[in-house]
Amino acid sequence: MTASVTLSHAALYGWMQRVLQRFGMFAVDAELVMARVLEAERRGQVQAGLAQLAEIVTAFDLGDIDPRARTLTKLDLPGYALLDGSTGVGQVGASRAMQLAIEKAKTAGIALVVVNHSQPCGDPLLYSEMAAQAGCLGFCTTNSGKAFWPPQAETRLFASHPQAWAIPAGPDAAWVSRQSIGPESLPEPTFLQGLVSLAFTAGLAGGRLPGAKKKASPFGAGAEHACLAIHGPTVQPESADARWSDSLLQSDYPGWTRVNFDPLPETWTISAETWEALTETAKTSRIPLPEQ
Questions:
Q1: 89: region left, alpha or beta (phi > 0 left; psi from -120 to 50 alpha)
Q2: Using CA atoms, how far apart are residues 257 and 261, in angstroms rounded to an integer?
Q3: According to the model, what pLDDT value does residue 15 have?
Q4: Cis peptide leading into 150, omega within 30 of 0?
Q5: Are the C-beta atoms of residues 147 and 158 closer than 8 Å to each other?
Q6: What pTM does this model have?
């Protein structure tokens, strides 16, 4: 296996764009995927970063994801919307859901947008942060994969159900918190997190419960997402200071981390394992990787 590889942002971005469009993705949808994948990679969220791009391309090739899917509006209310992801890339469906939730929250104060018939969208924190960058409190949860919890139960009810919150901390930062179900979770929050996620996804989106998802591949089983945005200045116009969270949470508050909205780097250092996955993507797409 080769050592880590360094590429310029322009070279990597251009290659990703050509790969996605090679499979027929619309340019605007490809930009949403690249934005979420690269932000995850920058944050060190490996499985939601460039490695997931390789998984998406494999799912294109297998027919599990429709690269030209359109996100359709099935129900549109002032503070709520239901979207149909049409088995498209999860990063597209979830991004459009949060964009719409932010737009509605700036008028209605609070808005929830759910997406069904979608695919795994990566780290839900990426979408919560979209809300925080727009001056909203953001929440995102997703329902994908087969049920595995509780492990000792005859009928397993929950998948990992990752969910994340983001609270604005000024124009260039946010306080964020991420949870998911797993062996390290305590029983009480595990069931609470799972029920909250299922209420938003399988409930409001009309998706299948994790126990009904039989396919091993998360892309084959599909996914649902829920995005919530609360616009403080609309709900409480007199409390416009978005930095109240700094004094409340502080830097060492358990479960919360302060993150800065920094620009993407001009160069990327890609691990050997991820580079190997991208090499397979290059072969599948017949788009050669940029020179190191």
A1: beta
A2: 13
A3: 97
A4: yes
A5: yes
A6: 0.87
- Rg of the chain's alpha carbons, rounded to an integer? 19
CA 236 remoteness from chain centre: 28
- The pLDDT of residue 146 is above 90: no
3-state secondary structure (DSSP) of residue 121:
coil
Given this model, what pLDDT does residue 186 score?
45
Task: Please state the domain count of the chain.
Answer: 2
Residue with tokens 């695919």: 119
From CA 25, how far away is CA 71, in angstroms rounded? 13
Alpha carbon separation from 195 to 70, 115, 143, 243, 261 (Å, rounded) = 29, 17, 11, 31, 31
96 and 22 in one domain? no
The residue whose two tokens read 């942060």 is 129
Q: What are 236-241's contacts with CB under 8 Å, separation 24+? A: none
Tokens of residue 107, six digits: 């008028």
Domain with 33, as residue range(s), is 5-65+265-285
Residue 235: CB atoms within 10 A of its CB come to 14
Residue of 17, 27, 26 whose CA lies nearest to 53: 17
Q: Are residues 34 and 143 in the same domain?
A: no
The residue that leads in pLDDT, 144 or 42, is 42
Query: What confidence tens digit (pLDDT) does each residue in 87-99 have?
Result: 999 999 999 999 9
Note whether 237 and 211 are same-domain residues. Answer: yes
Q: At what angle do helices 272-285 and 50-62 cross, to 10 degrees?
A: 30
> What CATH number did the domain enclosing 146 receive?
3.30.1370.60
